[in-house]
Specification:
InterPro entries: NGX6/PGAP6/MYMK. The chain has 611 residues and is α+β, with helices and mostly antiparallel strands. The chain is built from 9 helices and 24 strands. Strands 13, 14, 15, 17, 20 and 22 form a 6-stranded antiparallel sheet that branches. Strands 2-9-5-11-3 form a 5-stranded antiparallel sheet, with no helix packed on it. The termini are far apart.
Length: 611
């Protein structure tokens, strides 16, 4: 439900390049980085205060910067949404989501709801003029700026520079007629509710008596004060509970809420009418006003009876007014979202962060929400796809690569439980802290690539041990520094491939023949590298938030398949033979510079297998 009323005069919107010579700059804010809109918490807020009524010009502009490593790209022009509201934070709804029942998203005092463009090639200006036609331009103002919501690929840090969009605002005082702000006097028998603060966004407004007697021939008037900034980011709630007399079988409680003046409930066109239909058993209901306007609020109640058996038509009515947390707790008990505290400069405000397709101011709009079955399917795909590393564990043990087998098992275990914990909805299970699982998943993935390439290179045992330890230490630093950077995977992969090529070159030099064999290249290494390359391409260029569970599951499968192709056959020792054999092992010694004359003959009678 929307409560729409514009209280100020003409709003003039235009693009321009300069201000008039008699304009005086009052404030300048920004630039602030903008974010794509997914929930109200993604908006960037500008706040200022006009001490006296006058004619003001608000000038908005934007810039584009490229940050991070990687290749430079052209940043596309983008449309920016802008809302300006007096007395309260704007409540943007560009996705046109459903508003919950008993929730009133006010558009009263909304000064602007438009868009402007930010371009990398030139700086454009967008003006909003506030005209004091009704002498009410003084007060607190809030501007909301954000980028449109759209499907994006999951950015892989380090591949290309990131385009970041910024906005700033300049406020000018223009020549205009000043006036005094109108104040609506309180009239009638008024009960002023007393403010009591219990903490941040935990405010109650109470009267001397918790309840009042309502009858069909009386009206009750109430007044309370919403503070600017301090209460602006919370949710105002009005709760009405009634207990009718014994002779009253059916009744109606009506309350007219208005931010300007007292209005009777039977003439509540400019306010918001709250109705409570009840029976002899009593009723209770609550209404929500997100980001209430600062200033005095007024409420008028009337009581009407239907079907009473006597003239004793009355009830005890309990009125409770408060400023509190998110509406219905963002339905966190159902896994639809969570309530978060957001900050932009000195402004604090509450907003729901919705999950698994739920949207709206209270995560109540399930138009695009995933069912529990769909959530479970995504979780199972992301977790069970890691079971492809279990054949890698078995193969490594069979070929006596016991260290590599441990790494592959670590990948399967940590990645499975990380993705089980990483799900946003109800199908989630965490065996330890999320950060621990995420770090372990990234570290094990990079380590699996490195250990496989070291095994393919087949260095001597001492060098192999050094490479294992050096790799793990370096990966721990890299994953801690930026685990999402593509270079965390690419750099170890490139170093490992160079190491393999160097080892094969030395093998060719020692053997005086091509190594490895063509059969091995075509049946093992080419398929393995194709799987690894395809997986890396999907990971870097194809993944989006919508297809993540499919593409990332394919990444798991392709990388495990690559290991099955690339893992070498390895040496098979006689039973009881030490790993550190005194004989020269071509499988473990590709770096030998001078082959002995009888090297190949010495291996003819052994059980060592050379592929």
């Amino acid at each position: 439900m929307y409560w729409i009323k514009f209280t100020l005069g003409a709003i003039i919107l235009s693009y321009s390049c300069a201000t008039a010579s008699n304009d005086t700059k009052l404030f300048e804010f920004g630039p602030k980085q903008l974010h794509r809109f997914d929930n109200i918490g993604d908006q960037e807020i500008f706040h200022w205060d006009f001490d006296f009524p006058n004619k003001y010009l608000l000038r908005f502009s934007g810039t584009v910067n490229q940050t991070g490593g990687g290749f430079s790209v052209h940043c596309a022009d983008t449309v920016v949404h802008l809302l300006v509201r007096k007395g309260a934070l704007p409540i943007p709804n560009p996705l046109q989501t459903i508003v919950p029942e008993n929730t009133f998203v006010q558009s009263i005092s909304l000064q602007s709801n438009n868009t402007f463009t930010i371009s990398q090639s030139q700086e454009l200006f967008y003006d909003v003029i506030i005209d004091p036609s009704d002498n009410k331009t003084a007060g607190h103002y809030f501007a909301s700026v954000f980028l449109p919501n759209q499907e994006e690929t999951i950015d892989v840090a380090g591949l290309t520079k990131e385009c970041k969009y910024y906005a700033k605002i300049q406020v000018y005082n223009q020549t205009g007629d000043s006036g005094t702000t109108d104040v609506t006097p309180a009239t009638g028998n008024t009960t002023k509710l007393i403010r009591r603060e219990n903490g941040l966004f935990n405010v109650q407004f109470n009267s001397d008596s918790a309840t009042f007697n309502a009858s069909s021939d009386t009206q009750q008037l109430f007044e309370w004060e919403i503070l600017p900034v301090k209460d602006s980011g919370g949710i105002m709630r009005i709760t009405v509970e009634s207990k009718p007399s014994e002779d009253t079988t059916s009744y109606l409680v009506e309350a007219c809420v208005n931010q300007l003046e007292y209005i009777a409930s039977d003439n509540c066109n400019s306010g918001q009418l709250l109705t409570l239909n009840g029976t002899s058993g009593g009723e209770r209901d609550t209404w929500h006003f997100p980001y209430p306007i600062a200033g005095p609020w007024y409420l008028t109640t009337t009581f009407k009876c239907h079907g009473n058996t006597s003239n004793n038509c009355q009830a005890e009515v309990d009125l409770r007014v408060s400023v509190g947390s998110c509406i219905d707790g963002c339905h966190s008990n159902k896994g639809q979202g969570s309530c978060g505290l957001y900050r932009t400069d000195e402004i604090l405000f509450l907003s729901c962060s919705c999950k698994v397709g739920w949207r709206g101011i209270a995560c109540n709009d399930g138009t695009e929400a995933l069912s529990y079955g769909e959530q479970l399917l995504q979780t199972l795909l992301l977790t069970l796809s890691n079971f492809m590393f279990l054949p890698c564990v078995a193969l490594a043990i069979y070929r006596k690569f016991y260290t590599e087998a441990l790494v592959y098992f670590f990948v399967a275990f940590m990645s499975s439980f990380y993705h089980a914990c990483d799900q946003p909805g109800a199908a989630v299970y965490c065996i330890m802290k999320y950060e621990t699982l995420q770090f372990s998943d990234f570290l094990s993935s990079v380590s699996a690539i490195w250990f496989t390439l070291v095994a393919v290179a087949k260095p001597p045992q001492r060098i192999e041990s050094w490479l294992h330890v050096a790799g793990c230490l370096g990966f721990a630093v890299g994953v801690s520094y930026d685990r999402f950077s593509v270079w965390t995977v690419v750099i170890p992969g490139v170093i490992g491939v160079v190491m393999v090529i160097a080892a094969w070159g030395l093998q060719c030099h020692n053997r005086h023949a091509c190594y490895p064999s063509k059969k091995k290249i075509f049946l093992s290494y080419i398929p393995g590298l194709a799987c690894a390359g395809t997986g890396l391409a999907l990971y870097a260029f194809v993944e989006t938030s919508d297809n993540y569970y499919i593409v990332h599951s394919l990444w798991h499968i392709l990388m495990a398949t690559a290991v099955l192709f690339l893992l070498p056959i390895g040496p098979k020792y006689k039973e009881g033979q030490s790993y550190n054999t005194n004989k020269i092992d071509l499988q473990r010694q590709p770096f030998a510079l001078e082959p002995s004359d009888n090297m190949y003959h010495s291996y003819s009678d052994t059980n060592l297998h050379v592929d």
